[in-house]
Amino acid sequence: MYDVMVIGAGPAGCMTAKRLADADYNVLLVERMKIPREKSCSGILIKKSINLIENEFGKIPHSVLCKPHISKGIIITNEKNQTFKFESDGLNVWRSLFDEWLALKAQSAGAELRQSTSALSCKEKHDHVSVKLHDSEIYEERARIIVACDGAGSIVKRNLFKKSKNYVFTYQTFCKGTIDLDPDFFHAFLDPQLSQYDAWFNVKDDFLIFGVGIKEPSTMKMYHSRFFSFLNSKFNVKIESCVKDEVGIMPGVMPGCPLDLGTGRILFAGEAANFLNPIGEGISSALTSGYGAAEAVKSVYKTNNFSVKSLINTYKCNILPEKEYMTRQWTILAGMSSKFSYMK
Ligand SMILES: Cc1cc2nc3c(=O)[nH]c(=O)nc-3n(C[C@H](O)[C@H](O)[C@H](O)COP(=O)(O)OP(=O)(O)OC[C@H]3O[C@@H](n4cnc5c(N)ncnc54)[C@H](O)[C@@H]3O)c2cc1C
Question: Are 243 and 281 contained in the same domain?
Answer without folding.
Answer: no
